[in-house]
Specification:
The chain is mainly α. The protein has two domains: 83 residues; 97 residues, no CATH class. 60% of the residues lie in helices and 0% in strands. It contains nine helices and no strands. The chain is globular. The two termini are 26 Å apart.
Length: 181
């Protein structure tokens, strides 16, 4: 799956890259792990593989943005920070990522898990997310919905982005439901 230029499929694209890296390397949640030590040839090879995967699965117009990134984690952070500058679509992507967190068995403390979750909570809040009942339920309605195909969320997110830009944080559940119908 290719990361679209507008990032409308960022959450699902990121999840698929995690799955592919896991299948190839047996590393769970690669992007959520701390950056690997660059002293190991194996870790450098994994990073090179992850970097190539990013380049071959993003929209060609996004490649210039990550050309200067030395490592795959840096490229992923660059892409995520570029797209997480507010708006409904960015918030949906972060919310879906937040909901997908499970305890990583390579972590040595529960505090590490809490820090990973907290990072996404802070990202949501920095994008302007308001913890209201309407916003949370609206996010859950979209969570897990298809990004592409006949029931695509692209048009829904585009319409909600326009409403959000006009009045940040004021998306109501009725707005989400109306756009999804």
């Amino acid at each position: 799956q290719q990361l679209e230029f507008d990032s409308s499929n960022l959450a699902s694209w990121r999840t698929k890259t995690v799955r592919v890296i896991f299948v190839m390397t047996n590393i769970l949640k690669y992007w959520d792990t701390k950056q690997l030590s660059k002293d190991s040839q194996i870790e450098l090879a994994i990073d090179k593989y992850a970097s190539q995967m990013i380049y071959t699965t993003i929209h060609p117009n996004l490649c210039d943005m990550i050309d200067e990134c030395d490592y795959a984690h840096n490229a992923m952070e660059m892409l995520e920070s570029h797209f997480h500058q507010g708006g409904w679509t960015a918030q949906v992507a972060t919310f879906c990522q937040l909901c997908s967190h499970t305890f990583d068995l390579t972590m040595t403390t529960l505090l590490e898990h809490i820090q990973v979750v907290h990072k996404d909570i802070k990202k949501l809040e920095s994008d302007g997310f308001k913890w209201t009942k309407d916003m949370i339920i609206g996010m859950f309605y979209q969570h897990g919905a298809p990004i592409a195909g006949p029931f695509s969320m692209e048009a829904v997110n585009a319409a909600l982005d326009v409403k959000y830009q006009a009045n940040p944080g004021a998306i109501k559940l009725a707005d989400v439901c109306a756009e999804m119908q």
